[in-house]
Amino acid sequence: MGVDQIARFGHAVSLLRPLDLTDLYWAGFSCLLTDVDDVPIYRGEFARFFLGVEDGDERVDFDHEQKTRGAGFGTTVDLDQAEDVLGAEREADSSETGGNEVGKHASLTELLRRRSLADWTEEELHQLPRLLRLDLRFPTKLQRRHKPGAAGSRIDLRRTVRRSFRREGEMLERVWRRRVRRRRPVLILIDVSGSMSAHSRSLLHFAYLLTMSGLTVETFGFGTRLTRLTRHLSDRDPDRAVSSASTAVEDWSGGTRIGESLGALLKGYGSRAGVRGAVVLLFSDGLERGEPELLADHMSRLRRLAHAVIWLNPLKGDDSYLPLARGMQAALPYVDLLVAADSVEDLTRLSRRLATLV
After folding, report:
1. Which positions ≥6 away from 304 have C-beta within 8 Å?
2. Which of 14, 134, 157, 266 is the most exposed place for a label (fewest CB within 10 A)?
């Protein structure tokens, strides 16, 4: 292994989140290996150092999405076994420090990303902004405004004529104008009722990250009434922003009236840019206490105004889940995507899916 390989690996790690175990594995795989025969050795040593697994070649199997990239040599962490190993390590001698502690920390972070948000402690919620890795390539829309470009739909006659003066009036170089593309606004609706209270605070952190990303974001909380939270989530301090937003919601952990809340949204904001043409992210388990007919009517109006409606249901993370609740049954015909929102991985996967919406 040469110094240049180690330097490349160090540079790769500096570009990644240093406690993301999967990225760390593939950074080393890409930068340090030069021979196929070294793959089992690298895999085994990585598992032994970061997971405490001695027989790494047998017990590690890295990220199924990466198998095609690794040409058959790639693997994902077996998390059930890793959690047992880490539990034993936590009971080991507390004087153990150095590289093994870093490996343990990385492994715990990987497990935390897959754990249900309902099981997170208040202390762990402070790590959520660091663990969420969002793809912000949101859908775009064409504006009426044009700007100069290397190619476009029409000639910029004024600039073309000006450039011709440099060549004695010969229009040898044409300047084009193209329509400006702008990312669509995002409308976030978070159910803060009793059945969603275990997830609501985590989802406020998610809304805060989108607000701070430079996107045009409007955020509302709803239970039995609608509360606008955009101003509260504009604070630079994430903990203060989330605390302010949760305090502003008077009906936190109360009942659920999705239909009435959507009606208030459409009446007060339906004609504004926050709704029209927006990507709507609605976080709820669909346990509606109001009339499902009212919910269906307002969902139909919302769908006509919005570019896309994404319903994020924490219960969807369970493979046996079926959308049988009255609220979900009424809303489903007007939903473009029904996706899980139970863990950090679910939210990260959501941001990647949004990038594919036309």
Report:
1. none
2. 14
SS3 category, 112: helix
**Domains in the chain and their CATH numbers?**
3-114 (no CATH), 143-183 (no CATH), 186-354 (3.40.50.410)
Query: For the chain, which ranges sit under pLDDT 50?
Result: 56-60, 63-99, 104-105
The pTM (predicted TM-score) of the whole model is 0.64
The number of residues in the chain equals 358
Structure tokens at 340: 């899980």
Instruction: Find the Cα–Cα–Cα–Cα dihedral 68, 70, 74, 77, rounded to 10°.
Output: -70
Please state, as a whole number, how many other Cβ atoms lie within 10 Å of the Cβ of residue 62: 22
Nearest-5° Cα angle at 190, 204 to 284: 125
C-alpha span between 267 and 89 (Å, rounded): 56
pLDDT by residue (tens digit) across 222-277? 998 899 999 999 888 888 998 999 999 988 888 889 999 999 999 887 666 578 88
Tell me: the pLDDT tens digits for 103-113?
544 556 667 77
Burial 263-298 (b: 16+ CB within 10 A, else e): bbbbeebbeeebbeebbbbbbbbbbbebebebbbbb
Whose tokens are 């509302």? That residue is 220
* 331: its two tokens: 């809303």
| Helix/strand/coil for 339 | strand
Closest CA to 111 of 136, 89, 92: 89
